[in-house]
Amino acid sequence: MPDNRRRPIAEQLTAAVNDLFFDPRARVTREELRERTTVHFAAYRENELFIGARTPVERNAVDVTVEISDWSMSVKQQRRIAQDLTPLLARLFDVPPAGLDGINIRFHPYPPTDFAVGGRLLSDIVPLVGRIMKRLASR
């Protein structure tokens, strides 16, 4: 992928994640959420990714994998994210409708005790009531 395509893709993915995860009842503003959203491109050279022992070029297929981690993601929230991000990813990476199976989203939900920010566990930063509200809102 040419370097000049990466920033516009990162901007659109950041905006989409912001829309999917923003909760006006939370203490995190849209700007704070945007500043916590990371987009990392990990491109593979032709001979570094194999599916069924063939490269995507040999398969005449695109393979795009997005990994999303957030604390306490529910299955309902993951389903909504997959439904909303897949068409966006298809558009951003020129994946034809017949190639949607080449778009993969891998979720990494974790409890707030498994992540630290600035030396403090997320469970110590976000009050219990906030953690409960997030769980209830994402069901």
Secondary-structure blueprint:
Blueprint: H1 3-21, H2 30-35, H3 56-59, E1 64-71, H4 75-92, E2 103-110, E3 116-117, E4 120-121, H5 122-125, H6 128-137
Parallel strand pairs: 1-2
Antiparallel strand pairs: 3-4
Helix pairs in contact: 1-4
In short:
This protein is α+β, with helices and mostly antiparallel strands.
Characteristics:
139 residues; alpha+beta; two-stranded parallel ribbon; two-stranded antiparallel ribbon; 6 helices; 4 strands; elongated
> What's the number of helices?
6
* Strand content bin: 5-15%
Question: What is the N-to-C order of secondary-structure elements (H for helix, E for strand)?
Answer: HHHEHEEEHH
Shape: elongated
Structure description:
- The protein has 139 residues and is an alpha+beta fold.
- The chain contains 6 helices and 4 strands, in the order αααβαβββαα.
- A two-stranded parallel sheet has the order 1-2.
- Helix 4 links the parallel strand 1 and strand 2.
- Helix 1 runs antiparallel to helix 4.
- The chain is elongated, with a radius of gyration of 17 Å.
- The model has no long low-confidence stretch (mean pLDDT 87).
